[in-house]
């Protein structure tokens, strides 16, 4: 266990010392913020103003809460992805074979990368959460309650575990940093669409919505949005019909429906946990079956 701890610390320090790595981990967040500041934010604000007939300040509170919830998930995925790139870098530099000389199994060696990615993503997730709260305060919103803050941490952790396990399964078939760079770039481009941040869920064709509903990250994003936007929606839609609130939440991807069934937070959590378990098992099988020295 001591060697495992040393390896985890080593991977985390490698990530933190590479300022370029840290920057590119947050690049997707910066792009999303820029797009919302320049264009997308106004579209969502105007839609809400017309939908609920409210003043801009209230619409700003809701849409920015919605935005920050999405960014929480995006950062969790991208930081996990960048952290796992250290494993590819070690392979390319022929350092993995050197690690195998130490008294540690191949499984624990791979586990060290997974643990390091999970811890780092969670730590930066907390930093992102603090930023999001100040951001929302800055646009006239309110801080989440302590209970909601704890729930946000829980949802974030489940999302990270699911993302790390899934990304490990994918990176197990990547052998060079050039290939991994292409994968990271593709993921960074797609994640805004997959989590329905660039365009609200309701603005997409039904066929596209059906495809997106096959990705676990969408349910994690919806849960995070529910936690972030509930106080704002309760304030803005006070006295409004339940049907109007449900329509808005469905359009913005705060709630997900399959046919006539609206997915509850419990159902979304089960999907996330299920995907985390499945991908973790797959990651374990890959770690045991695949000879690292031959990767």
UniProtKB/TrEMBL annotation:
Identify its membrane topology class.
Answer: Multi-pass membrane protein
Q: List the GO terms this entry assigns under cellular component, sorted alphabetically.
A: membrane
| Pfam families assigned | ABC2_membrane
Keyword Transmembrane helix assigned to the entry: answer is: yes
The UniProt transmembrane annotation reads 21-41, 66-88, 109-137, 149-173, 180-199, 267-287
Q: For this protein, what is any one GO molecular function term? A: ABC-type transporter activity
Write the record's keywords in alphabetical order, separated by commas.
Membrane, Transmembrane, Transmembrane helix
Which first-to-last residue range defines the signal peptide? none
What InterPro entries does the annotation carry? ABC2_TM, Nod_factor_ABC_transporter
- Cellular localisation: Membrane
- Zinc as UniProt keyword: no
Q: Where is the ABC-2 type transporter transmembrane domain?
A: 5-226
Question: Which PANTHER family is this protein grouped with?
Answer: NODULATION PROTEIN J
State what protein this is by name.
ABC-2 type transporter
Protein species of origin:
Cellulosilyticum lentocellum (strain ATCC 49066 / DSM 5427 / NCIMB 11756 / RHM5) (Clostridium lentocellum)
Q: What's the source species' lineage?
A: Bacteria, Bacillati, Bacillota, Clostridia, Lachnospirales
């Amino acid at each position: 266990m001591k060697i495992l701890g040393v390896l985890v610390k080593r991977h985390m320090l490698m990530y933190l010392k590479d300022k370029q790595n840290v920057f590119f981990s947050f690049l997707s967040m910066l792009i999303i913020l820029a797009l919302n500041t320049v264009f997308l934010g106004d579209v969502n604000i105007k839609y809400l103003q017309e939908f609920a007939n409210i003043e801009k300040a209230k619409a700003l509170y809701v849409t920015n809460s919605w935005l920050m919830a999405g960014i929480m998930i995006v950062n969790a995925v991208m930081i996990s992805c960048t952290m796992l790139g250290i494993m590819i870098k070690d392979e390319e530099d022929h350092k993995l074979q050197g690690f195998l000389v130490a008294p540690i199994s191949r499984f624990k060696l791979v586990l060290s990368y997974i643990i390091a990615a999970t811890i780092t993503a969670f730590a930066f997730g907390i930093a992102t959460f603090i930023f999001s709260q100040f951001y929302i305060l800055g646009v006239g919103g309110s801080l989440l309650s302590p209970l909601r803050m704890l729930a946000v941490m829980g949802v974030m952790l489940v999302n990270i575990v699911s993302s790390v396990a899934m990304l490990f399964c994918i990176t197990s078939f990547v052998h060079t940093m050039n290939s991994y760079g292409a994968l990271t770039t593709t993921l960074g481009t797609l994640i805004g669409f997959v989590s329905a941040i660039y365009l609200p869920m309701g603005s997409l064709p039904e066929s596209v919505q059906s495809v997106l509903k096959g990705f676990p990250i969408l349910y994690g994003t919806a849960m995070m949005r529910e936690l972030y936007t509930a106080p704002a929606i309760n304030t803005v839609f006070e006295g409004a019909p339940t049907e109007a609130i449900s329509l808005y939440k469905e359009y913005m991807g705060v709630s997900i429906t399959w046919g006539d069934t609206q997915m509850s937070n419990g159902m979304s959590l089960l999907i996330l946990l299920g995907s985390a378990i499945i991908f973790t098992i797959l990651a374990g099988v890959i770690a045991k079956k695949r000879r690292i020295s031959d990767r």
